[in-house]
């Protein structure tokens, strides 16, 4: 019998099974997409904010841990 491994979101601590993780958590940061959606909705940080985003800046292109998700949001390639 295989044990079910559950992985927590680093922000909200909600647990995801290994099967759910691929579509529910950003593997680079450990943050779940519900938390990203809340961040976009409440503007609690700059993620997905077109007025803040600058693809030429070091922050947005290299330093920000959420750069991949943010870029997809800005480009309209994902919706949360
Ligand atoms: Zn979360």
Rg (C-alpha, Å): 14 Å
Order of helix and strand elements from N to C terminus? EEHEEHHH
Overall mean confidence score, pLDDT: 93
Outline the biggest β-sheet: 2 strands, antiparallel
Poorly predicted sequence stretches spanning 5 or more consecutive residues: none
Helix content: 25-40%
Shape: elongated
Structural class from helices and strands?
alpha+beta
Widest sheet: strand ordering: 1-2
Count of β-strands = 4
Quote the beta fraction: 5-15%
Ions and ligands: zinc ion
SS element count, helices: 4
**Termini distance?**
35 Å
Question: Short summary of the structure?
Answer:
By secondary structure, the chain is α+β, with helices and mostly antiparallel strands.
Explain what the structure shows.
With 80 residues, this protein is an alpha+beta fold. The protein has one domain (6-74). Helices cover 39% and strands 12% of the residues. The protein contains 4 helices and 4 strands; from the N terminus they run ββαββααα. It has helices spanning 18-24, 33-42, 58-63, 67-74, and strands at 6-8, 15-17, 25-26, 31-32. The strands form 2 sheets. A two-stranded antiparallel ribbon has the order 1-2. Strands 3-4 form a two-stranded antiparallel ribbon. A hairpin with a 4-residue loop joins β3 and β4. The chain is elongated and about 50 Å long. The mean pLDDT is 93. The structure holds zinc ion (ZN).
């Amino acid at each position: 019998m295989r044990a079910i491994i559950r992985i927590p979101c680093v922000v909200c601590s909600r647990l995801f099974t290994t099967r759910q993780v691929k579509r529910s958590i950003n593997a680079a940061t450990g943050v779940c997409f519900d938390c990203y959606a809340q961040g976009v909705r409440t503007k609690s940080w700059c993620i997905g904010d077109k007025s803040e985003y600058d693809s030429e800046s070091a922050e947005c292109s290299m330093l920000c841990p959420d750069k991949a998700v943010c870029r997809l949001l800005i480009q309209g390639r994902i919706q949360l």
